[in-house]
Amino acid sequence: KGAVCGSNMHQLTVAGTMWLEESKRKRAPVHLGWAPHVMRMMSGDPGPFECPSNTGPPIPAVFIKQERTGFTYPSLSIDSGYFRRQNGLYNGYYRADMETEADTAGGDRDFDDAYVYTKPIGPKKAEVYAQKTGTGRELSLLDWRTRTLQANFSTSNKFIVPLIRGGMAMNISAASSGVKPWHIFFVDYNDWTACTETGFYIRSRDNQFRGDRPRRPEWVQPRHNKKANVSFVDGSIKKMEEARLIPPADERAASIWHPQRQPGWTGVLGQ
Q: Is 189 in contact with 167 (CB distance < 8 Å)?
């Protein structure tokens, strides 16, 4: 299983590099979700996302687009920090709870603005629908190519889309400036976005701005003989013990996760 996971991680690393290269024309929106973008670089194949030892909930390859008169909002994919992915089933569906203001200091952060429901159909397909609940914004459901499936839904129709069975996370810091070949790109993880810096404004499960804890990488998963598969920006892959993946107590300090940060660094992608 470790060898299969490593091979899949290599494919993700190649595709992720292609996406970041493509995104140099604009800021790579890793904090808004990365999985469908990387899947597009693999011609829509969700297979390489899977670690055979992972048991976490799968996600559909879709986006939620947000609109309101006079305002422009980003589209979000289900792996982003704007969703909480539930492990349990609701009438046979996995549910992901959306919060439109997860990255703002004044947001309510209840993760109750919309729900996305996913029912696996075989290993690579899923039935998906979305339900708007607690937001005044217009929401539209988009496929992994960002084509509109249904605009301005209250409760959308059901659609068949690719199913992404995860197990690996992209290190969000890999999309920032100053990254070096030895910085982590992907890692075995039990959530979709590896975040060691609070400056990216991704919420943890206890509603704090998330940076993995100073003495322990919060969600790294050493699944393979007590080691985790880790890929780096230069494309290399290693098996590493959890202790070697501990972020520094001072999150501005240089580490294998990110370069040295200056005081006031905000984590705005591309800067």
A: yes
- 45-59 tens-digit pLDDT: 999 998 887 777 899
- Give per-residue pLDDT as tens, 165-203: 888 889 988 888 788 999 999 999 877 888 888 877 777
Find all residues with CB under 8 Å of 131, minimum gap 6, and list them: 114, 115, 116, 117, 153, 154, 155, 156
Which string of DSSP letters, residue by residue, matches 109-176? --S-SEEEEEEEETTTEEEEEEEE-S-SSEEEEEETT--EEESS-SBPPPEEEEEE---EEEEGGGGS
Q: Bridge-partner residues for 125, per DSSP? A: 121, 162
